[in-house]
Amino acid sequence: MEYKRCTLGVWDTTVPGISFDESGISNYAKKQVELMRRYPRGETGENHWNTILEKIKRAGFKKEYDCIIGLSGGTDSCYLLHMAKEWGLRPLAVSVDNGFNSQISLENLKNITEKLNIELKTYVIDSGKLKDAHVSYMRASLPWIDCPTDMAITSTLMRYAKKYGVKHVLTGRDFRSEGKQPLLWTASDDKQLRYLVKKFSGHKLKNYPAISPWEMGYLTTVCKIRRLNPFYYLDYEKAEAQELLIDKYGWKYYGEHHHENEFTKFTLSYWLYEKFKIDKRIITYSGQVMNGNISRNEAIRILSNKPYDALNIENDIDSICEKLGMAKKELDILMTSPNKNVFDYPSRLNFVRKHKRLSTFVIRKILKYDALFLDQL
């Protein structure tokens, strides 16, 4: 396809499954508009969220906690924790440690939970298992090599909710400020995780916190645990949230979106960009342009620069290799190996692709998760 950029956002022809109408508006922009219509903000969104809040409080009555909040030390999750206290909720903060949390993120976690007097539970992923998983995804030459951590986070939050009898898991996701990622860039599942680890490390992955569709279905339908995104409904502005966090909790900024974790930062800014020519900032800034947080011209200007600091990238790479137990020479070889996608290896997504209508129903109605982007598969 001839290079083209969306006239409303900054999505371009590097994004999988993109198409444009006669006015140059992309299908991604139209889906963003659909999401904004589906989750209105202002008075309507606030009223809807207040109704949900009452349900959370009723479900958590007489329990130690009434919700679980996943905490990374980043802007969104820290501000959500602050707001939960303002709403009169009694959250349990849960952090997942994959061994790559930056010192800044750890300080942010400590400061905000102590000042809010909120209990923090930290689940530490077995370093050997996680190393095998990350290295296996890299050797598989897949784009989103941070999938093992993402799966562990989802699994841990849901299992903590079950453990404490909590019916609601709150996340700081906000499609207006971070966009919606193409599934072909980010998708994977527990079946693929175990296959890749066995194939590329020679080890059988046991007792890793990766949730299966069957367990997720059980937790959602039988245990009635719901995952909620409050910022979908509320007038949330990231810059204002950061100012408040800095003022009240001594919070510190860490750079681009998700750069509070060193491995995620490496994945986003170097692995994806240099190996796959994928710049995920396109998605993030498109969402912000559509929401009026940044001008389209400013987003284009930012995207003209590389997503990593050329002066420090070698140190970042050395640190990643050391923690993974990987020789720099192997990483250099992997950076030039043929690129693969999620459908090049066994996964549950082949069933989803074949039975899209059924999968959409199950994901949206039973698992209570957004299935708007399944048409990319």
Structure description:
By secondary structure, the protein is mainly alpha-helical. The chain has one domain: 3-Layer(aba) Sandwich (Rossmann fold), CATH 3.40.50. It is 53% helix and 6% strand. The chain is built from 18 helices and five strands. The protein has a five-stranded parallel sheet with strand order 3-2-1-4-5, with helices on both faces. Helix 4 links the parallel strand 2 and strand 3. Helix 3 (75-86) packs parallel to helix 4 (103-116), helix 3 (75-86) crosses helix 11 and helix 12 (262-276) packs across helix 15 (313-324). The longest helix is centred in the N-terminal third of the chain and has 18 residues, at 42-59. It starts with 26 loop residues before the first helix and ends in an 11-residue tail after the last helix. The mean pLDDT is 92.
Topology diagram in text:
Layout: H1 27-38, H2 42-59, E1 67-70, H3 75-86, E2 91-97, H4 103-116, E3 120-124, H5 127-139, H6 147-163, E4 168-170, H7 175-178, H8 183-186, H9 190-201, H10 213-222, E5 226-228, H11 238-249, H12 262-276, H13 281-291, H14 296-303, H15 313-324, H16 328-336, H17 349-354, H18 356-366
Parallel strand pairs: 1-2, 1-4, 2-3, 4-5
